[in-house]
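SAMPLE LOG
Freezer: B-3
Tube label: C17
Construct: single chain, 560 aa
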Amino acid sequence: MRLSFNSFQFIYFFAAFLVAQNPSPNRFVLNTTVGDTFLSEGLSSNIVAEIRLMGDSLTWLGTGQGLALHDGGKVYAHKTTSELLTNGQITKFVPEGGIPAIAVSGDTIAVAFSGDNGSIQVGYGLVVTNNGSSVQDSSGISWSYLDQPIDDESDEIKPFGEGYFRVLPVTVPEANVTYDSYIHNGYLWTASWAGGLRRYNLNNASWEIVPMPMDHQDSLSTCTGFSEIDELGRPIKDDYYLNPRDPSDGGNHNHKAFSVLAYKDTIWVGTANGINRGTIIDTVIYPGGNQPPIFKNCIEWVHYSYPNDGLSGNFVVGLARQVWNGKSTVWAATMNAEAPGEIRGLSFTRDGGLSWQTTLLGERIYNIFSSDSLVFASSQSGLWKSFDGENWALFDSAIDTTYLSLKQVLTDVVYTAVLDQRDTVPSLWLGSPDGLAVTSDLNGASWEIFQTEYDPKEFYSYPNPFSPNNHNQLGNEGFVRFHTGAMGVSKPELSIFNFAMEKVYEKIYDLKNHTGALKWDGRDMNGKIVDNGVYFIRMKYSQSSNKSPQDYWDKLIVVK
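STRUCTURE (predicted):
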């Protein structure tokens, strides 16, 4: 392996969470929706980190355990394969793994997969199709599998633009995870941490690595400045080395790419050392006479970073563009990296990068979505909404207020949100560590919630083991959820006993006045968090109004 990271500490921990955790039961009972087996009803993971809209009704979902979709009515998990796929292979199934990135353009969709080798994140490659809407057909989608882009050991000089660049080959999928992607003008652009910024030509199925400025550079041209000629007659970029190692090892944090956005002739890339704005030059020059036409395809880069350019921080994990009243705003989720004074928040520019402002300082932002005057920021604290980019309102956590729904998103964290305006009444989609939610009330008064079920009819506690200090953190409290299946009584009774069968907690839920999940915060009747150990859960209820209530039991392990 030619690549090492001795001191880099900016790993996108959100993606590590995607694949390292399993906030859903270990088994599933999912109903096949079609004669074929490429879809199963229900989510395979409660972690929903990506939401992308396609066509009139499809909504694609990237989860901690694979690809899923909503067809306008229900949620389905896309079936996976554990078989080793080869580069270019056509497959009806997708690889196993979490999904940190989805890109959609028309009927074209690209999905990135990742996993964990025990110590570091690993890219599991991508699947691409230009017929994504055919998922509604029982024949399924024909995906083309792409290996995670890597280099050969000998790839020390790479072509791009009008010349060649010296590069450090990235030869392994470790630390090479596609965290973001974007489809624009026939290219799939990928931001892949140590794999850097690359683009895949959807027409000829070829990859290119895209050079960006080194840490100390304010700009970089891939169109000019190739005065050195090597022994093979190739024009080499002057004083340049693409190297994603740490600066202490001679590398550049700006060559570690985490987010990407493209439109018209412009591309924006967020890295571990700020934001890069590229102007894409794609022209044909006709010299005249008998001279053949000259094709130019290159990028002119400008590099913005903390503290000189006004960003809140140099670690840029999300980008979005807002267009309203003829004006364009680029939003960036900026986090603190290494420099003193950096802070988490949102950074934005209304003049193409000439100047930057900040807002929501102190907030850990995951993603941004905009539509007309509205801006949504998904964060550690929840979902923020603004009409002007200066004044922000925080949504309450998602609850389904439908009688006896008993569904609630038990976390403050929101990973992603999308405003869906394909119907007459707009709807808001929300992805979290605890499921998917959608509402037609843009104030979030009530939501329809989709979560993983072990068995629709079985009583169980989840998560199990349960940590009140770490699991389902909502309003500075942690919760364990009790799944009951159908509920035929209005006042189920909860009792919790320790290993000595001493009652430590009891509660009667009045479902006529209770909305949200049946849950427990891990505290006894005196408000103290219980000790580590085994606890016995008894819920007394009936699953039908025609039956008498009975006791349902489960064993719960509490580990603080």
